[in-house]
Amino acid sequence: MLGIGKVNLTLILSDFFLQSGLGLTAPLFAIFITGEIKGGSLAMVGLVTAAYWLTKSIVQPFIAHFLDIRKGEKDDFKFLVVGMYIANLIPIGYIFSTNITQIIILEFIRGLAMACVIPTWAALFTRHMDKGWEAFSWSIESTGIGLGAGLAAALGGILVTAFGFDFVFILVALFGLLATTTLFGIRRDLFLHNHFAPAVPLQEKI
Fold first, then answer.
1. Is 5 a member of any domain?
2. pLDDT of residue 204
3. How far is CA 165 from CA 26, 41, 57, 126, 173, in A?
């Protein structure tokens, strides 16, 4: 695509699959907790949400800093892929969960996994932007995830009504695993090139 190279197109496609999967249940997750999980309530929905966001928000700056001082993009790619695989297996855990404590633990793990994913995805996307096409690149990314999440949200309620939450959680995991597998299409592009200056040891920056 004009103005967007292979690496960023692949990252956008991966994010589209990821957000499409998440969009299937995101609007219905509170209903799942209150209706399907022992101990679930509106108060617990807030606690579950906090378990994810607080974990991710606290941990990701440390991971991002660690990767910033590492040379090359191999570590970024590894953290991105491993984090996505772990995060995308979490919906399978929902199927076997019977109480709110298990859901909170799963969201804590998902927060740790996404703390590996978010900064590495953003770093790779930023480094591989074509100069002068920054706004356009981010607009295509935003459009892609918006379309994926919006269409999935419309479909999610229908699927849950027809087949139940377990079926839809499996679909979420499959979309997520597809998103992760898509990233291997740019593995060689990242491993064969160094897109930024070698890292300076932390003690030398002081």
1. no
2. 38
3. 12, 17, 28, 36, 12
Q: Which of 118, 99, 116 is nearest to 48 (CA)?
A: 99
Residue 71 CB contacts under 8 Å (≥ 6 apart), including other chains: 194, 198, 199
What does pTM read for this prediction?
0.87
The total of structural domains in the chain comes to 1
- Residues 162 and 34: beta-carbon distance below 8 Å: no
Please indicate, yes or no, if residue 9 is contained in any of the structural domains: no
CA–CA separation, 39 vs 33, rounded Å?
8
Q: Please tell me what DSSP assigns to residue 41.
A: -
Alpha-carbon dihedral of residues 158, 170, 56, 81, nearest 10 degrees? -130
Cα separation of 87 and 80, whole Å? 10
* Residue 200 binned pLDDT confidence (cut-offs 50, 70, 90): very low
Is 201 part of any domain? no
104-139 pLDDT, tens per residue?
A: 999 999 999 999 999 999 999 998 988 888 999 999
24 closest CA partner among 154, 145, 156, 147: 156
Q: What DSSP state is assigned to residue 28?
A: G
CATH number of the domain that residue 175 is part of: 1.20.1250.20
Domain residue limits at 112? 21-194
Residue 78 lies in a domain: yes
pLDDT (tens digit, 9 = 90+) per residue, 28-87?
Answer: 999 999 999 999 898 999 999 999 999 999 999 999 999 999 878 889 999 999 999 999
